[in-house]
Design a protein that fits this description.
Layout: H1 15-21, E1 26-28, H2 38-51, E2 55-57, E3 64-68, E4 71-79, H3 89-92, E5 103-109
Parallel strand pairs: 1-2, 4-5
Antiparallel strand pairs: 3-4
């Protein structure tokens, strides 16, 4: 869909299963189109991904830890939108994260 100055994207919920079949284990929802259809669309995306067993990260304070080839990896998504972890989130925490990992993968969309 398009508006005067923006695009709003929405895919069928069944596409989450296609992601899983394609080998996608985890996605980052901290992006500029994650909330195109408001809280209902965002919640629907999270429910569809959960049902398809595709992990996700990117909500405020959300850290996902996965095991890759026997190693724990923490994934965090950051963006400058209210539905995502702010870029300076880790610095604002009152206590440090309690996850011990060898690698941290971050994705940031300004």
């Amino acid at each position: 869909t398009t508006g005067k100055n923006c695009f709003a994207f929405q895919a069928p919920a069944a596409n989450a299963t296609t992601l899983r079949r394609a080998g996608v284990d985890l996605v980052n929802l901290a992006n500029n189109h994650a909330f195109d259809y408001g809280p209902l669309g965002y919640g629907g995306t999270r429910r569809a991904l959960t049902a398809a067993r595709v992990g996700f990260t990117g909500a405020p304070g959300e850290i996902r830890v996965v095991t890759v080839v026997g190693q724990k990896v923490a994934l965090l998504g950051f963006a400058s939108y209210r539905w995502s972890s702010p870029i300076n989130w880790a610095r604002k925490r009152s206590k440090p994260a309690t996850v011990t990992v060898r690698s941290v993968v971050t994705s940031c969309q300004p």
